[in-house]
Every structure is written in structure tokens, then in C-alpha cells.
Amino acid sequence: MSLYRHKPGKRMSEAVVVNGLIYTVQVPESGEGDARAQTAETLGLIDTVLAELDSDKSKIVEATIFLTDLTDFDAMNEAWDAWVAEGNAPVRCTVQAKLAHPDWKIEIRIVASR
Predict the structure, then answer these.
(1) What is the pLDDT of residue 50?
(2) Which protein family is it in (predicted)?
(3) CB within 8 Å of 105: residues ≥ 6 apart
(4) Which of 34, 68, 81, 112 has the smallest number of Cβ neighbours within 10 A?
(5) Dihedral sign (CA 95, 101, 107, 109)
(6) Strand pairing of 91-96 and 60-67?
């Protein structure tokens, strides 16, 4: 089994790669803006991490989206639909959750191949 921790920190790594699968979780850096803006910002962070690991959004196999308020579902989907690679939509679920920071409206967990 191969395992690589990308930008490890004291509490967590930016991503972990195991046997060719990339696992990452991203949240908006600023916590500002509405759900659409925070989703777009978070997806941009996912793009960056995947690029650093020689992957991209067309290789995402699974996404779990955590929203603090399900009334933001449509706004989140607007940003998601504009971002997701044509013909490469992953398996995805969206759940409501209380997130660790009060300004965050979204948190996204991704599994992608290299």
C-alpha cells in the first residue's frame, strides 16, 4: 500500500493519497459571501490541491457536500454545475451539518484518482 500525506499539519493534511486515490476536504478560506460564492471559492481550492497532486476535477469519483442550511442547495448547485467537468460528474451526496466555523456555509470532501 502506498500512502502520501500532502502538506501535513499538526491536526490534518491538505490531502492524503492512498493507492492512487486522493482524499481532501476543503472549506472556504474567508467565510465571506453567500453559499454560491463560498462554494465557488471552495471548488477553486479543490482545483488547486488536485493540480498539485497531478490530478484534476475530471478525475473526481466521489463528493460529499456539507451545507449548514439546505435552503442553500440551489445556490450551491449553481456553482457546482458551472464547475463540474462535462460528462464527469462524480457520485455525490449533500447533507446538512453544523460546521466547525460559524461563518462557513459549506465544506466539501472529495475522493479523486491520480
Answers:
(1) 99
(2) Belongs to the RutC family.
(3) 28, 34, 35, 38, 39, 67, 68, 69, 72, 99
(4) 81
(5) negative
(6) parallel
CA-nearest of 54, 59, 50 to 26 is: 50
3-state helix, strand, coil in the chain (%, to 5): 30, 35, 35
- Within 13 Å and on the Cβ side, how many CA atoms surround 62? 8
Side-chain-side CA neighbours of residue 40 (13 Å): 9
Amino acid at 53: L
Q: Which residues pair with 4 in a beta bridge?
A: 17
Q: How far apart are CA 67 and CA 36, in angstroms?
A: 11
> Which one-letter DSSP state was computed for residue 85?
P
For the chain (114 residues), the mean pLDDT of every run of 10, in chain order, is 96 98 97 97 99 98 99 99 96 98 98 98
Domains, the chain, in order of start with CATH, read 3-113 (3.30.1330.40)
C-alpha cell at 95: 447533507
Phi first, then psi, for residue 5 (nearest 5°) are -100, 115
pTM of the predicted model, to two decimals? 0.96
